[in-house]
Specification:
alpha+beta; Thiol Ester Dehydrase, Chain A; 3 helices; 26% helix
C-alpha cells in the first residue's frame, strides 16, 4: 500500500495545560496531510469547488490515542487509502514521532464527496479518482 507522509512540528499552541498535544489537534494534523496529498497530486480544493462543484466532508472518524506528543516534537502524518467508492474515500492515518517512527495516534477517516451547493453526495471527478488509485 502506498502512503503519503507530511511533516508537522508541535507548537506551544497545539498543547494543553499538561504540555501534550490537545487531542483534537491530531485531527487538524490529519486534515492538513490529506489536503497536502491532494495538492501533491495536482488538485486544489478551491479549484475543485469552482470547476467541479465538489467539496469534501468528514463522514466518520475513529481515533486511537496511543502515546502523547509534546511541545516541539517533529511528527510525521502518514496517510494511506484503504478503500474508495464513487463518492467516498477511507483513509488510514498514523501520527508518528519523526525521529523514531513511534506510532502515537492512529485514525480511520471516511471522507464524503458532496455537491458544493446541495451538500448531497456527488461522485468525485474522474481525474481525481484515477490519481488517487494510481497513488494508493
Amino acid at each position: 500500500m502506498q502512503h503519503f507522509d507530511w511533516p508537522v512540528r508541535v507548537y506551544y499552541e497545539d498543547t494543553d495545560s499538561g504540555g501534550v498535544v490537545f487531542y483534537a489537534n491530531y485531527l487538524k494534523f490529519m486534515e492538513r496531510a490529506r489536503t497536502e496529498w491532494l495538492r501533491a497530486l495536482g488538485f486544489e480544493q478551491d479549484v475543485l469547488i469552482d470547476e467541479a462543484g465538489v467539496i469534501f466532508a468528514v463522514r466518520s472518524a475513529t481515533i486511537d490515542y496511543l502515546r502523547p506528543a509534546r511541545f516541539n516534537d517533529a511528527l510525521t502524518v502518514r496517510s494511506s487509502i484503504t478503500s474508495s467508492g464513487r463518492a467516498s474515500v477511507v483513509f488510514e492515518q498514523r501520527v508518528l514521532r519523526a525521529h523514531d517512527d513511534e506510532e502515537l495516534v492512529r485514525g480511520k477517516i471516511k471522507i464524503a464527496s458532496l455537491d458544493a451547493s446541495t451538500f448531497r453526495p456527488k461522485p468525485m471527478p474522474k481525474e481525481l479518482m484515477e490519481a488517487l488509485s494510481r497513488d494508493a
